[in-house]
Write a structure and sequence with these properties.
Elements (H helix, E strand, L loop, with lengths): L7 H9 L5 E2 L3 E2 L2 H7 L3 E2 L2 E2 L17 E3 L2 E3 L4 E5 L2 E5 L4 H23 L4 H7 L2 H6 L3
Parallel strand pairs: 1-3, 2-4
Antiparallel strand pairs: 5-6, 7-8
Helix pairs in contact: 1-2
Length: 136
């Protein structure tokens, strides 16, 4: 990881092609440009060294490895400040259903706490642990 694999020009190209962001198993540069573009970029780190003449285009819409995880065309890749999740295409609907259940239950817990409930009791009342154990 001694050269970046994603800089400002590539970031602009990403947006120009209609992509929402970038997750790379490498380092990036031109972070300020990505921020100005409103482009989320998730990388292992930041470096100033250019990638020019040190990299080749491998393809588009192909299977790749990201931190040892296989990512195939059609897989769901989600990233935020908490981390990156890769969901195989064939499991995406089920995972999204469970995520919505989590969100609904967590909103109920927050509302209960706002109403003065004890946080532990609020968790127990909405059966939060059933989601984490898979018995939902």
């Amino acid at each position: 990881m001694d050269v970046n694999s994603y800089g400002g020009i590539v970031g602009f190209s990403t947006l120009h092609r209609g992509l929402a962001g970038c997750v790379i198993d490498g380092v990036t540069r031109d972070v300020d440009e990505h921020q100005q573009l409103g482009l989320p970029v998730y990388a292992r780190g930041i470096i100033q060294q250019s990638i020019r003449n040190r990299c080749a285009f491998a393809g588009q819409g192909i299977e790749v490895q990201l931190a040892g995880v296989t990512v195939r065309p059609g897989d769901l890749v989600m990233a935020d400040d908490n981390g990156i999740v890769i969901v195989p295409h064939e499991q995406a609907q089920e995972v999204l259903k469970i995520a919505k259940e989590y969100k609904t239950i967590e909103q109920r817990i927050v509302q209960a706490i706002r109403n003065g409930d004890d946080p532990v009791e609020a968790h127990e009342r909405v059966n939060y642990d059933s989601l984490t154990t898979g018995s939902h």
